[in-house]
Amino acid sequence: KNRIITIANQKGGVGKTTTAINLATALAAIGEKVLIVDLDPQGNASTGLGIQRRDRKLSSYELMVGSHTVSEIVQDTVVPNLSIIPSTMDLLGIEMEISQAADRVFRLRKALASADALAYSYVLVDCPPSFNLLTMNAMAAAHSVLVPLQCEFFALEGLSQLLETVDQVRRSVNPALDIQGIVLTMFDSRNNLAQQVVNDVRTHLGEKVYHTLIPRNVRVSEAPSYGKPAILYDLKCAGSQAYLQLASEVIQRERQR
Amino acid sequence: KNRIITIANQKGGVGKTTTAINLATALAAIGEKVLIVDLDPQGNASTGLGIQRRDRKLSSYELMVGSHTVSEIVQDTVVPNLSIIPSTMDLLGIEMEISQAADRVFRLRKALASADALAYSYVLVDCPPSFNLLTMNAMAAAHSVLVPLQCEFFALEGLSQLLETVDQVRRSVNPALDIQGIVLTMFDSRNNLAQQVVNDVRTHLGEKVYHTLIPRNVRVSEAPSYGKPAILYDLKCAGSQAYLQLASEVIQRERQR
Lengths: 257, 257
Ligand SMILES: Nc1ncnc2c1ncn2[C@@H]1O[C@H](COP(=O)(O)OP(=O)(O)OP(=O)(O)O)[C@@H](O)[C@H]1O
Ligand SMILES: Nc1ncnc2c1ncn2[C@@H]1O[C@H](COP(=O)(O)OP(=O)(O)OP(=O)(O)O)[C@@H](O)[C@H]1O
Ligand SMILES: [Mg+2]
Ligand SMILES: [Mg+2]
Known about the structure:
The structure is a homodimer. Chain A is an alpha/beta fold.
């Protein structure tokens, strides 16, 4: 049986894709069979894992319209044990195309309930920066949500709204949905504001916040231009080490369920 | 007659709101009468200009459903000569509510064509990080688009898609739409990748790219927590100075039309 973790935050640029790519890689590195679903039309997770645009003939679009199964679409990545359902801009049309369908919120859940999807131990879903039908599908399909939070004021402002949305999804379409945790990203220790955000979030949300802080680290932002996760591009850098640590925290929490 | 400039980029966290707030403030500081329209449900532009959530009784939602006019909704900000149409999470419902209306793409254009809206010399529209109906409305209403571009690989990846979308809007609903320019944001001179992105963008897009580079500057990210634009919070900092310089470039380009 697979554990489905959705990486979501409607605030843009907080590190959703970077967290999805590097957490998936860290989980795969310790032997878990991992699938990453790129549900953002921008397709950054696909690019960051080396899938060229021209090689995305089948994508999460086909998964959402139900024309193909996970095993027909899935591709290998540069990382052993890590497969991907890539995305293209076709996904932009989904909102209009399935807006009248009764099961429009459950398309992804249905696709990930198939036998071929259950073969993975972890499925990570990378979401676009909005509360749209794609993100709703990801939350309806997930066992838990992992929230990347940039150590910035605007990012903090949107957190309470995000937590409320998770509550609404739990009450309406997915009673099992919980918050796996909140990971603070792009932390710069020289920056007072960043330290304040960390203190604020830890005070209000306590144990929900991972101990691991992901530091701002230029090697992390360079890696996707080589089509590799930071962990492959530069294992020894502070960013990669932090994501490996995050992976062990995630697994610990999964074991404690 | 007003000039409507839409600040757009579907990539998240690239500096759209920060650019909208500080460019609007710089234009107001030199005596232009400016209106900022917050078209992002996150409402960061409203917060960054000191509008408390509880004071947003009327917002861009009412503008989009056509129940109220600009002058009924508009509020003053902490900045002289700068008024705002704030936003709330109500905007999230717009997509479903007006999706069947024939004029769904022109709601903002109609609202900004009213006499009260024409009284402003500049109208800046802050967009959410997606190609949704809200961003389409902003592009259909605009005379030009100003594109903030973070000096990062993922941000560069989305640029060609954004330019293509602007082309599509020009061909379909707004023949007058042009690109005012591309402003490079959060530039860190110690970071090779950032320098490469700057070189790349200048090589491919030449004069479309403003000379002004907005540096990464912690004072810029601190300002919104005080409900003030950086220009008011710390005029002398590198970020504020860069936005003042950007404003003069924008005006120069407007004069050359
Ligand atoms: N720890 C880090 N150190 C340095 N740069 C980082 C770090 N994490 C992410 N970045 C960079 O910051 C930018 C934003 O990160 P990313 O694209 O992962 O965020 P996102 O939330 O997925 O954005 P979007 O909302 O557009 O989907 C990217 O250019 C990325 O390379
Ligand atoms: N020049 C800068 N220096 C330092 N921090 C900056 C700068 N510009 C923006 N920021 C910070 O970076 C983050 C992203 O900027 P901002 O929110 O303006 O981007 P956005 O494109 O509007 O995001 P979204 O896609 O969520 O609407 C914010 O926390 C902001 O305070
Ligand atoms: Mg992303
Ligand atoms: Mg914004």
